[in-house]
Amino acid sequence: MARDSCDGCGRPVSVAGGIANLWTFGEDDGSEGSAMMLEFEDGSDHLLCYPCIAALPDEPTAEDVARLEQIDEESSRLGPV
To answer: What's a Pfam family this protein contains (predicted)?
Structure first.
């Protein structure tokens, strides 16, 4: 799995898949990561951890990602406008 940091809160994340997991199967098949790459309707794309994804509104924009803050290891929130 590739390792990087969340574009929203900055916590370290792992991305499922990639060439490193091409020929692995079973329990450690690389299908579990802690982040996803999302492309928004405004044309921007962001690598976000699952707590940040859960904190986003229904129609997120790049400005919403810029407002994301880490509260703890399991949650994130949108900061003030």
So the answer is: DUF7561
- Amino acid symbol at 20: A
How would you list the strands of the sheet with 45-49, edge to edge? Answer: 2-5, 12-15, 35-39, 45-49
pLDDT digits (tens, 9 = 90+) for 30-64: 456 788 899 999 999 999 999 999 999 999 999 99
Share of the chain above pLDDT 90, in %: 56
Which residues are registered as beta bridge partners of 45?
A: 39
Contact at 8 Å (CB) between 80 and 23? no
Model pLDDT, residue 29:
47
